[in-house]
Write a structure and sequence with these properties.
Layout: H1 10-16, E1 22-23, E2 27-29, H2 36-43, H3 47-53, E3 66-68, E4 73-77, H4 84-91, H5 95-101, E5 114-117, E6 122-124, H6 131-138, H7 142-149, E7 161-163, E8 191-193, H8 200-206, H9 211-217, E9 231-233, H10 261-268, E10 274-279, E11 285-292, E12 297-301, H11 304-313, E13 319-329, E14 332-340, E15 357-360, H12 373-386
Helix pairs in contact: 6-7, 8-9
Length: 388
């Protein structure tokens, strides 16, 4: 199993936020001796505004209390066909509110114009969030969020602001644009094979690029690791398939879509992700975590209960012979093949599994050259069994 050298790029993260910029509200922590009057003078706001923002019925405050001083706004870029009424309807606010926030005296807006929308129009990405999880939280589709924020990547960053439409465009009758992910992007004509010791920043420097470019072109997370032998795109986007869409399935199934690991799967399943595996033959399901791997997925069960279920799937004996399984992650069912022999590096303690197991998608490869061709072919056959 290969491991990628982790890089931390704090200066890159802000440049990767492909969503509209957000103007975050200002808070104040009350200290002894303060009053609403002195606080309002310090921030040049009215007492009424402070009380309204904090839903206060009187002027009483206390040391340590956190007061919201200014509202939180989310920027929206006006698109062709927009009107103030349509924008207000889409995000569940009033036309007058938009006009008031933006100090507008008329209803005229222009394509490309930035409008500030109130805090009720958006949310902030939290640890563990994905587009699918956020869409389900608000009862809308992933495409709704993609279109509202003009996203060109499904990578989210903690603290990233997102506009949240109040109604789903999927219920509307007008023709909808293709998902951004399926629109044509400029493909790379130049690639580079990662060498030992390489990182995103060193590769970028070799070609006179910004780290953000390498990350963007290869659909990487800001702290993504590179793997020796990995082929990355330099002057454009890496080829990518879109066979599955987050949120298209509600529950784990015993048949999944066949997904190419290098062209799609590696962008959907990343190191540290926890997901469900369902055995095609028995229907038994258990939770696993991707602990590493580049040519294929290295997984471990999450708990001892998951290990017991997986062991049952393999007939109560660990074995190399793979089984047809389906991965369920972010509302996607993906055909896969799982070997049942724990080996090598172990990352999760107290799960009664000593080592990790191999999980293959279409065209996955072994990590080493000493793996038999027949073993890889067995995986490919099981993937076909799990596919629909």
């Amino acid at each position: 199993m290969n491991f990628r050298k982790k890089i931390i790029l704090p200066v890159v993260i802000s440049s990767l936020l492909l969503t509209p910029a957000s103007v975050f509200g200002q808070n104040h922590t009350v200290i002894a001796g303060e009053s609403l009057f002195t606080i309002s003078r310090a921030y040049n706001v009215t007492i009424t505004n402070i009380k309204t923002l904090n839903s206060m019925n009187n002027d009483t405050i206390y040391p340590g209390q956190v007061l919201k001083i200014s509202e939180e706004y989310y920027d929206y870029t006006v698109k062709s066909g927009d009107s103030l009424w349509l924008i207000a309807q889409r995000f569940g606010i009033s036309v007058n509110t938009i006009k008031s926030i933006n100090a507008m005296t008329g209803d005229t807006i222009n394509v490309g114009q930035k409008l500030k929308l109130g805090s009720e129009a958006g949310c902030t990405v939290k640890s563990g969030d994905s587009l699918w999880l956020i869409a389900n939280r608000y009862g809308i589709s992933v495409l709704d969020i993609v279109n509202a924020n003009s996203l060109t990547s499904d990578v989210l960053n903690v603290g990233q602001p997102l506009l949240i439409p109040k109604t789903s465009t999927q219920t509307q009758t007008q023709i909808q644009p293709l998902p951004v992910s399926k629109q044509l992007l400029p493909l790379a004509t130049k690639t580079y094979t990662v060498q030992s010791g390489d990182s995103v920043s060193t590769v970028a420097a070799k070609f006179g690029l910004k780290s953000a470019d390498i990350i963007k072109y290869n659909y990487l997370a800001p702290d993504e690791w590179l793997n020796q032998g990995q082929i990355i795109s330099i002057d454009g986007y890496a080829p990518r398939n879109y066979t599955v869409t987050p949120g298209e399935s509600q529950n784990p199934e015993r048949k999944g879509k066949i997904v190419d690991w290098f062209l799609e799967g590696q962008h959907l399943i990343n190191r540290g992700d926890v997901f469900v595996i369902t055995d095609v033959s028995t229907g038994l399901s258990f939770n696993v975590k991707m602990i590493g791997g580049y040519n294929h997925i290295d997984i471990e069960t999450v708990t001892s209960v998951d290990t017991a279920t997986m062991l049952k799937v393999f007939g109560e004996n660990w074995k190399w012979e793979p089984r047809a399984v389906v991965i369920f992650k972010d509302g996607m069912n993906i055909a896969a093949s799982l070997s049942g022999m724990p080996h090598s590096f172990d990352a999760i303690s107290n799960n009664n599994m000593n080592g990790h197991c191999d999980l293959y998608l279409l065209n996955s490869k072994p990590h080493g050259s000493d793996v038999s061709i027949s073993y890889v072919q067995q995986h490919y056959q099981k993937i076909q069994e799990a596919g629909k």
